[in-house]
Inverse folding.
C-alpha cells in the first residue's frame, strides 16, 4: 500500500496499490521499479484509483526514456467499489475517501468456500456424490473476511460505513495528520489539506470493529511523544489498548 519510500520489504511485493498520487505516497515507486528490474524480478502490478492510470503511466514512460530503457509493468485502474484479485484468495477492494487529490482507500479481503451449515453433518461420501452430480453451488457458500483497511489520505468527511466490510476489517490503518490546537497544527490545517485531526477520530471510527487501529501519516511537526500524550484525550478508553502508531523516523522530522 503506497510507496512514499521503497523499503526492502516493498521490493519483494509484486503488487502495489496506490491510494493517490501525492509525492509522499508514490516517490519510492521509481526506486521500486528500477531495483526490481536490476535484480531481474518480474514486472510488477500497480493497482491505482480510476483516473490515475494515465498520469502514472506517463510518468513511468518518461522515466524510462530518461534511463533509455522502458519499465515493464501492468497498471490496473479500479473504480470506487471495484475489486481486483491479488492471489491466494485475496482481493483488493476500493472504498471512497475524501481528499484534495483524487484517490481511494483499499480493503484487503480473503474469500474462501465452505460447506453451508445445512450440509455439515452429511457423510463425506454423500458430499462427494452431490459434488459429482453438479450440486457444488448448492453445497458451498463463499465467505468473505475483511483483513486490512487502509484509508490513505482523507478528511473527516470520510464515511467508512459506505462499505460495511471496512468497518469489520481486522486491522484499520487510518491517517491522522494533525494533533495540535494552533492554526498550523489544528483543525484549520486539517481542513485546508483535507486531512484528519485527532479530535475527529471518535466520529470517524463510529461502528469500526477493528482488533487493531494503526494511526499513521503524522505531520512532521509532531513528535511521537506528543501524539502518545494526546491519545488518551481523544480516543475512548476501549480503543487505547489496541491502538498503534507508525512513527516518523527522527531524521524525517523538520
Amino acid at each position: 500500500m503506497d510507496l512514499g519510500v521503497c523499503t526492502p520489504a516493498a521490493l519483494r511485493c509484486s503488487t502495489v496499490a496506490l491510494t493517490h498520487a501525492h509525492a509522499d505516497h508514490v516517490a519510492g515507486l521509481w526506486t521500486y521499479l528500477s531495483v526490481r528490474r536490476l535484480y531481474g524480478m518480474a514486472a510488477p502490478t500497480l493497482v491505482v484509483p480510476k483516473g490515475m492510470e494515465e498520469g502514472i503511466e506517463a510518468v513511468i514512460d518518461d522515466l524510462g526514456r530518461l534511463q533509455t530503457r522502458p519499465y515493464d509493468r501492468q497498471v490496473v485502474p479500479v473504480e470506487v467499489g471495484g475489486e481486483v484479485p491479488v492471489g491466494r484468495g485475496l482481493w483488493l477492494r476500493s472504498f471512497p475517501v475524501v481528499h484534495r487529490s483524487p484517490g481511494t482507500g483499499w480493503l484487503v479481503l480473503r474469500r474462501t468456500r465452505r460447506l453451508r451449515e445445512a450440509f455439515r453433518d452429511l457423510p463425506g461420501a454423500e458430499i462427494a456424490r452431490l459434488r459429482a452430480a453438479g450440486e457444488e453451488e448448492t453445497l458451498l457458500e463463499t465467505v468473505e473476511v475483511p483483513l486490512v483497511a487502509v484509508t490513505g489520505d482523507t478528511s473527516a468527511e470520510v464515511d467508512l460505513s459506505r462499505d460495511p466490510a471496512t468497518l469489520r476489517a481486522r486491522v484499520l490503518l487510518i491517517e491522522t495528520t494533525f494533533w495540535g490546537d494552533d492554526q498550523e497544527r489544528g483543525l484549520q490545517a486539517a481542513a485546508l489539506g483535507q486531512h484528519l485531526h485527532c479530535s475527529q477520530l471518535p466520529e470517524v471510527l463510529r461502528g469500526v470493529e477493528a482488533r487493531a487501529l494503526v494511526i499513521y501519516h503524522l505531520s512532521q511537526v509532531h513528535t511521537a511523544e506528543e501524539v502518545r500524550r494526546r491519545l488518551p484525550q481523544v480516543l475512548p478508553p476501549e480503543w487505547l489498548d489496541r491502538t498503534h502508531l507508525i512513527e516518523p523516523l527522527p531524521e524525517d522530522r523538520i
